């Protein structure tokens, strides 16, 4: 599922809801860089975590 992520998309980390929503900054292979509202910039290993896409009208 992470394969469809593109910069600008809004996501949530299913294992860290306290991070809030985040905007995808880049995806290079399995490395996904996301800027979360409550946790700042994080690099996610897409082999271990499938990020949840947030519908922009749900924000």
TrEMBL record:
A Pfam family annotated for this UniProt entry: DUF3553
Record-given protein name: DUF3553 domain-containing protein
């Amino acid at each position: 599922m992470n394969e469809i992520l593109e910069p600008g998309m809004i996501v949530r980390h299913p294992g860290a809801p306290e991070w809030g929503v985040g905007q995808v900054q880049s995806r290079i292979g399995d490395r996904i860089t996301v800027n979360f509202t409550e946790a700042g910039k994080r690099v996610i290993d897409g082999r271990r975590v499938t990020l949840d896409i947030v519908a922009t009208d749900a924000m």
